[in-house]
Amino acid sequence: MALPPEPWPTGVAEQLEPLVRRVLAPNPSPYTYTGTQTYIVGAGDRVAVIDPGPADQAHIDAIMAAVGDAEIAALMCTHTHRDHSPAAAPIAAMTGAPVVGCAPLVLDTDRPRADEAFDPTYEPDRVLEDGEAMSGPGWTLRAIHTPGHTSNHLCFALEESGALFTGDHVMGWSTSVVIPPDGDMGLYMKSLEKLQEREDTIYYSAHGEPITKPRQLVRGMIGHRRQRENQILRLLGEQARPIPAFIPDMYKGLDPRLHKAAEMSVEAHLLDLERRGMVARSEDIWQTI
Question: Coiled-coil segments, which residues (predicted)?
Fold first, then answer.
């Protein structure tokens, strides 16, 4: 999706609803859209900061200006990609705020990525299990375990308003990338189905605009992934093939710069199908069973 025309509201605290403000980080890219969106939850003297973002001083200053005289009750991270969690450590050092949320995860790999690498500085004071909550005056944020994009991914439900902070699991501008070995398509689909069963009224993702018809979007995302899976099975029914050979048929007219990302998505689907006993491989050649 093309970027919207500038100027973007980078560094400005935007009020989205009575308990939620948004601050956009200055890190636009093909994988972050206009940048990572940090959310400040709470209207009283204790607030939570969700996905503090990259360790960029201008962004940290913008967060602190938005927080003002309030105490930061928790720096809450949905996952540990480097566009989401690195600012937690310096803000914690400045304020004494605890880092709360996802489990630490650092994946060492020399494979090309279609998203940000992992943050080695992330050290949570408390890891939230599925269903655990943090609260402050007038707000409660409950952790929803949503592995798939990464194995440690969490969403946070704001119980007072029906909002869900979805990190990179469901985004307002693009489908999430699922990159093996940590990204898992089977878990990603189960996490989408988990959200589909919920009754959240609006999604605030880390990238892109608020999602005002969340269940409709999730239903479409599940359908899109099932369509990709069926394409893979159909193509393997015609001929066994290596992963690069799927791309011309599945992604017609794709920008060559995005071929590696497409290959990793196909690989994630194939690994899921392999676990389900539907495909097999011999070295780099995949075939149906």
Answer: none
